[in-house]
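Consider the following input, taken from an annotated entry for Sortase B (Lachnospira eligens).
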Amino acid sequence: MSDIKTEDNDDFIVSSSDLEKDEADIAFEAKEKKKRKSKIISRIILVVSACIFIFAAYNLISILLEYKKGNDIYDNIGDTVLDDTPVNISIGDDAEITIPFKYDHQALLDINSDGLGFLYIPSLDTRLPIAQTTDNDFYLTHTFDKTYNSNGCVFEDYRITDKLNANHIILYGHSMNSGAMFGTLHKYKSSYFYNYDGNDVFYIYTEDIIKEYKIFTAYVSEPISDTYTFNFISLDGLRSYANRMKALSLYDTGVNVDKATQVVTLSTCTNNGKQRFIISGMYVGETTIEDFEKSSEGTTSANN
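Applying the prediction step yields:
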């Protein structure tokens, strides 16, 4: 193997084998440096991923705890306001039906003076208090007992006069992922669900009266639309409105609204909050809690 002699220093001689060793060392060092850099990046990615996972888990747990807190609040309200004694009633020409509880309006007002009544949707087993205040914001983030919570509360549009005696009542409620509030209302997008026996009605208790409503339409609306028309000055205006909303239905309910005297609209978010899902019911008739008691006494006497 030949030697290489430098021009400037005859005494300094570098062999080709030394050069090969230096190049190998440099290559090795570069490779090791790359490995160390790769390990550092991998560790950073691991730490960041772990932080993201912990943050996501924390948020999920917080959401679940928020859901539970809201559900517990409404369970407690139900325990206070509703007596789980089943009562048989009949409204109008309808066959006798069983309401699984009796409602105490004063107990509701003792919790919150904004209370108007109680909404009951048998098909969804939805039992929720209704409130009305001076804006449409407060009950988006507060439960019926005014606790700050994402469940919010079912509330009537504050601009509607005559409260639950208005000719058009609009009730808002969140569509919770947990299924709480109006979270299961979307089931009415299916005609099959609507046509199942008994799924075409809902009820509102107010003071000593329970009112029955026949669902005549189910449709998707924009957040700002004719859906949210209220305080009609005549029954003709209300009936014209009801027919227009019926024409928007996802399916034909077969309900005639030409003689409607009152309409209740339930509104909740759909399509990631971009639109609203609506169901509306027409007033059918009513009975009183006193009639509940009489019917219960009559049933007891018959059994004896």
